[in-house]
Amino acid sequence: MAGGTGGGEAITMVSHDAHAAPQGFIRKWVFSLDHKVIGIQYFFLALVAVFTGMFLSLLMRIHLVWPNAHLPILGDIKPETYLSLLTMHGTIMVFFVLTTAPQGGFGNYFLPIQIGAPDMAFPVLNMLSFWTTFLGFVVLVAAFFVTGGAPLHGWTGYAPLSALQSAGPGEGLGADLWIISIAIFCIGALMGALNFITTTLDMRAKGMTLMRMPLTCWAWFITAILGLLAFGVLLSAGILLLMDRNLGTSFFVPLGTVNGVLTGHKGGSPLLWQHLFWFFGHPEVYIAILPAMGLCSQLLSVFSRKPIFGYKAMVYAIMAIGFLGFMVWGHHMFMSGMSPYSAFAFSIMTMGIGVPSAIKTFNWLGTLWRGRIRFSSPMLFAIGFVSLFVVGGISGPFLAQPVLDIYLHETFFVIAHFHLIMGVASIFGIFAATYYWFPKMFGRMMNETLAKTHFLLTFIGAYCIFMPMHFSGMAALLRRYSQYTEVAWMHKTDGLNHFITYAAFVTIASQFIFLFNLFWSMFKGEKAVDNPWEATTLEWTTATPPPHDNFGGITPVVYNGPYEYSVPGAPKDFVMQTDAQVGAKKH
Amino acid sequence: MASFSTTATLDEPRVSRGNEGGSPPFFGGGDDGRSGPGVPDYRTRLRRARLGLLVALTPVLMLFVSFTSAYVVRQGLPTLDPRTNQLVRDWIPVKLPALLLVNTLVLLISSVGMELARRQTKLASVAATAKPSQTVPANAEGKTPWLAMTIALGLLFLLGQWMAWKQLAASGFYVATTPSSSFVYLLTGAHAVHLMGGVVALLVAGFFALLHRSVATRSIVVDVAGWYWHFMAALWVYILLLLEFAR
Amino acid sequence: MGLVLLVVIWLITLVGSYFIIAKTWWLPVGASAAAAGIDHHFTITYILMGAVFIAAQLALGWFAWKYRDRGAGSRQAEYSHGNTTLEVVWTVLTVILFVGMNLASEPIWSSERLQGAHPGAVQVEVTAMQFAWYFRYAGPDGKFGATKPELEDASLGGAGALGLDPADPASKDDVISGVMVVPVNREIEVILRSHDVIHSFFVPAMRFKQDAVPGLAIHMHFTPIQTGDYELACAELCGLGHYKMHGIVKVVSDQEFSQWLAAQEAEKQ
Hints:
By secondary structure, chain A is mainly α. In chain A, 61% of the residues lie in helices and 1% in strands. Chain A has 17 helices and four strands.
């Protein structure tokens, strides 16, 4: 591992090469250029974000069931406060958890290793992308503390509500900070996407063809492409919104009044905001789920000791989901006043995107079939993922049909749908990744008993929270209501609401088992061997934790695909990707 | 651990090697381009940097595509006038200052200068790799300071844009005056911000020369900045055409 | 652990299935002409997707248990990279199911949204604002009077809230009400407007929802087929009062409707 002369510490965008490990606390842990450290930084950012977001949702569930409750320290939750809670809950979870942990966290750590590279293509940019994302989070949270507080317009920020400072409390400086935070996040995410794509295309080890990449790498790669194309559009929408709010332009705001006072705008189109936002927003939800799908495929294969069923189909399915993901945004706008002809077109495309998702589900079941399943904690979460993805996906075809969306739009049916997929299935992907890769990252095993307890409580708890929401949605319970005291029909689901809140208490409490397990195991967990799961991909060929250049001076050479389990005639029930002996015996 | 016998009578394990060829025709078959102890060679670094630029230009393009679609939609969109219950359009075209044409010329000339600078540094880099042990003086690329000229022309362009905004304001079109004027400021402003980024990159390359950094690194920075610069020039021409002809 | 997974997944499926079949919480009784068709399609989707849910979860639980590693006695996992024929078959079936389901719903969408109201429909202009609904009837002249944002003053009641322009002759006979009164068995054309932000007019019993967007006047239609009082609520986040922006749609007989309108006109004099 000689110290190279080119590239090293220069602040340029040229590729980085193996060099002497950095010394000093700041260089090593704060502004590290090592993708592994950066990955862990992203992970911890997402951890703080998820507990913040979860706390906000706890307050929301308490308020819905006891609207007049007086809470310690926080006091009464006014209607506008409730709406700020839900806005920030959505924004924090979607951006700083679901777009951060699977991609920035685990992707950063493991993509280079799984393809046999010593680091990401542009390490300085990688470091900057983390700190930019971190800055975005700080700016977002700051919105809570400024005059007027956090905005109340929902994570979707529909104009004119989000464009008019007079439209509600929190729509002043708080809303500006919200937009700026998202703009900063866009920049950070784009920097990350740049690294992921360049690294995947240009830095794979010898023998690691694209069709030998683990499905996790495919997922990270396609996710990065989605981000590359979508975040620029969100940034443009944010700029236009900032201009409407502060410079008096009228991109999104038509002629109108608030409380009888003319706003001073005219001619703008609220639907323009929706088109721009959802053009980003729909690929965003695929960004949130694809890495988890890639990991699920990985884990089902490892722990069934069986190749993934239909690798090529899985790759094409990920590509299809990514591609079609850009063509369905209008299904969020069926009731918006958009042309009903467009609605028809979008709805057919949306049914289309259900097909590759179904293919993946069939293939996951096919992987389990005739396997030899080991129920380690990562596998539990992978199986749980399949179950939750199915139940979350089932509500999709309801909403994709405009005729049914007339009734179901904006009800709790929608909340059930996206929470089961993003808020639970995707989170299960993050849990699975943590339990799976923890040994490699920290050199110790997490406690299996605590892990299994965490799994059971969370799996059952999540169903108890979100399954009933389908029913309350069918009973026309509307979302984004701070309380259900005014409308007569909404009292019919009071019982369900209580049940959901109690389930939320239990499920949220269970997450502290995970938190405890995480930190306790870092220091006191049983020491891990290099390949505790007997898996085949490249990260398991190297030391635990991996050295600075990932492979200790060795350049990996790949001979086999990533899912060679239970190969007839092989000495063990798994063949490493770098195993030349067995690979050399190919027909 | 079982040993693997080459004379096994069982079927040889037929391991799937994955697809070794015949798949999406992407870059490279997994050759990491390493040469020497962990230091990628110049060719690899250049390729990687250029790939990085190509990828980075995609969201920049998407930003302006998004602005363009907002432009088209806003221009054609009717809105309800409650006084008459009729749908009306409120688009008033803006007369663009002639100065913008001058600025365009400046930018195009700077692009020529940029290309000459890019080739100049490349030649120097090639020459330098023939004798890697020698330190290379700052003016190794030859006499004409193409890089400095490009930076100067770039700054001149930005100054010209500033003056054009002042002219626009003087004729009564501010940011919020009409939707059309909003877009003029938006598109030209966003472009100017991105061009400023290009100027900064060139300044960095200039500093590298002064600091006697390796000419290979310098040449990669100038190469990437050069392509970026050309993209910015083409983007500007597009913006001008959009604002002038899609009024 | 395989058994635990099987039990947990099957139990969840069983409990879920019970509520799916029992329809413990269901859509309210439909009171519009379109409701029957929409509800029928909803039920078909519900049955099909319910079947998929049950089948997939049962399979998942079953496989998790059946193919568990039983230790030394287990056979090795099957070394298979997939089955292309099977892939093609289930892909085609999925496409037929999904696309077929959608296409089957299109005639309803077409009649609800692609075709406008018939001439002779009763016109009601529905205006949304933070945080109330106002309903305007054109009166005997059949024309809605002009409104001016500068004239808006909610403290002056309905006409003031809408900013009705008294200078416009068509305004004189406009009836403005805080309650939406409509005759049964006649097509109602709603013209949706908003003064400030996006709201949404939602009457669950009518299976009717449409966003009210400022800067637009959106024409929609529905036909109530059952007299009675039906609640409506705002279905698009519009600010702090979103939760209390509700109202009533009163469906009455034709005769009662005319009487009510006449009474409103008389009151204005």
